[in-house]
Amino acid sequence: MQLLMNSLQIAAAYILFSLGLTLIFGVMRMVNFTHGEFFTLPLLVMGVLVPVLLGANVPLVATYALSAVLGISCTLLLGGVIYKFALKRFQRDMTGSFVVSVGLSLLLQGIFLELFGGVPSRLPTLIEGTVNVLGAYITLQRLVITCCALLVAGALCWTIASSRLGKALRAVAEDHEAAMLQGIPYRRIALIGFLIATGLAAVAAVLLSPVTVSSPIIGNDYLIRGFIAIVIGGLGSIPGAILGSVLIAVIESVGGYYFDPTWATITMFALTMFVLLVRPKGILGHG
């Protein structure tokens, strides 16, 4: 039960991150390597702002709230700029989007390193205490983080499945030309989808900020695991992204406990290669 609880809290963050990746791929048919920087920026902003506000005697909860709002806002602004001036021109162009997003990722990492420095930092604990859930012990802070992440993921799944915006996103992902013939504004829907994906990465970072170390390159770790999750589950498939995230979280938790974290990582890559050989579209992929 303890390993199951550990897997759940790891999976919750991976789900939010990989949902953003798969949403961008499904709507715009491109691979976005700057997604890791959308996760990094809120952590860096909060790493600077939280100590400043605490030094000004602002309450801890208000400090986190204000820092989170600013971090998410900065990330959405960055995402909008990158979309408008770079990635907008490479929609449905896998090669072009790959080259441009990799270059932008390296550029942003250099900028972050120059602005925020390379020393890792950790924020103070937001919620104290430990609870027992069905015989498994988990800190109250991690329990709240896991519940919030799952609620956000659930809200997104409902939006995609039931709302008017979700239907437009699904129509564009299925056939953007047919969707435009039905009066759906493809470019506006693509922008909205990109900003939603950017916001998911930022929200994941904000939720994890009290329990993770921030650095200018931390997004790389989540980017690798996010891509593994969507490749295993199926590119462009939201249920596939969730399934892939859960699988790699279980491998990371169970493998790290019984063996070594290195072997857990090797197992993830081995599973990815196996899925690509047996089912290139992913377990739940459609195309």
TrEMBL record:
<dbReference type="Pfam" id="PF02653">
    <property type="entry name" value="BPD_transp_2"/>
</dbReference>
<feature type="transmembrane region" description="Helical">
    <location>
        <begin position="257"/>
        <end position="278"/>
    </location>
</feature>
<keyword id="KW-0472">Membrane</keyword>
<keyword id="KW-0813">Transport</keyword>
<comment type="similarity">
    <text>Belongs to the binding-protein-dependent transport system permease family. LivHM subfamily.</text>
</comment>
<protein>
    <submittedName>
        <fullName>Branched-chain amino acid ABC transporter permease</fullName>
    </submittedName>
</protein>
<feature type="transmembrane region" description="Helical">
    <location>
        <begin position="189"/>
        <end position="211"/>
    </location>
</feature>
<feature type="transmembrane region" description="Helical">
    <location>
        <begin position="38"/>
        <end position="58"/>
    </location>
</feature>
<dbReference type="InterPro" id="IPR052157">
    <property type="entry name" value="BCAA_transport_permease"/>
</dbReference>
<dbReference type="GO" id="GO:0005886">
    <property type="term" value="C:plasma membrane"/>
</dbReference>
<dbReference type="GO" id="GO:0022857">
    <property type="term" value="F:transmembrane transporter activity"/>
</dbReference>
<feature type="transmembrane region" description="Helical">
    <location>
        <begin position="139"/>
        <end position="161"/>
    </location>
</feature>
<dbReference type="InterPro" id="IPR001851">
    <property type="entry name" value="ABC_transp_permease"/>
</dbReference>
<keyword id="KW-0812">Transmembrane</keyword>
<dbReference type="GO" id="GO:0006865">
    <property type="term" value="P:amino acid transport"/>
</dbReference>
<feature type="transmembrane region" description="Helical">
    <location>
        <begin position="12"/>
        <end position="31"/>
    </location>
</feature>
<feature type="transmembrane region" description="Helical">
    <location>
        <begin position="98"/>
        <end position="119"/>
    </location>
</feature>
<keyword id="KW-1003">Cell membrane</keyword>
<feature type="transmembrane region" description="Helical">
    <location>
        <begin position="64"/>
        <end position="86"/>
    </location>
</feature>
<keyword id="KW-0029">Amino-acid transport</keyword>
<feature type="transmembrane region" description="Helical">
    <location>
        <begin position="223"/>
        <end position="250"/>
    </location>
</feature>
<keyword id="KW-1133">Transmembrane helix</keyword>
